[in-house]
Design brief:
The complex is a heterodimer of chains A (117) and B (115).
Chain A: E1 3-5, E2 10-14, E3 19-21, E4 24-26, E5 33-39, E6 46-52, E7 59-61, E8 64-69, E9 74-79, E10 88-97, E11 103-107, E12 111-116
Parallel strand pairs in A: 2-12
Antiparallel strand pairs in A: 1-4, 3-9, 5-6, 5-10, 7-8, 8-9, 10-11, 10-12
Chain B: E1 4-6, E2 10-13, E3 19-25, E4 31-38, E5 42-49, E6 56-57, E7 64-70, E8 73-78, E9 87-94, E10 105-106, E11 110-114
Parallel strand pairs in B: 2-11
Antiparallel strand pairs in B: 1-3, 3-8, 4-5, 4-9, 5-6, 7-8, 9-10, 9-11
Classes of the chains: A mainly beta (117), B mainly beta (115).
Amino acid sequence: AQKVTQAQTEISVVEKEDVTLDCVYETRDTTYYLFWYKQPPSGELVFLIRRNSFDEQNEISGRYSWNFQKSTSSFNFTITASQVVDSAVYFCALSEAENTGFQKLVFGTGTRLLVSP
Amino acid sequence: DVKVTQSSRYLVKRTGEKVFLECVQDMDHENMFWYRQDPGLGLRLIYFSYDVKMKEKGDIPEGYSVSREKKERFSLILESASTNQTSMYLCASSPRMPGQKETQYFGPGTRLLVL
């Protein structure tokens, strides 16, 4: 069965520090997709990134970067120079194909990031 | 811009009541999903639908049912609410795409308290 583990339940940093959120996944599929979502206090999950299992290139988007390593089944997320607005719960997710061929997402339990001024 | 709306942000109901949670998306997406989110458990899939009038059970369907009469609307029904259904409920939608690369877009969530 597919599984996503976010071992860090909560992380506290001071503004401008760099922080890395870990995500480890398990799957038997050769083709899969990995996602990161952000859930601010308002509650809505905001899509951040989707990665194909065949594309191991690191990705950078502003202060956000993602490191995908198939060898360790990890898809870690780094925020550089953190800001108070980065305070949120972050979820990592893995897609799996149902027997019907339809996609389901398997979510980790989330990491709560608290950035203090 | 992607838009998924849910009928209520907060809801308080009594045990035994029938509860309807409504979700509407304006992106013409084929797929719609209902999740519940509980501390320490992440998001768990209750039901999903890949077409009008079609539904599939997720991981925790017990105590819930769904209805999809129109493409843009997906309703979650608690036939007889119980206190263990107190939770945050999140609706999502996604377009139908080949493979597994659909991205799900989420609504703001409904915090349900069952007394």
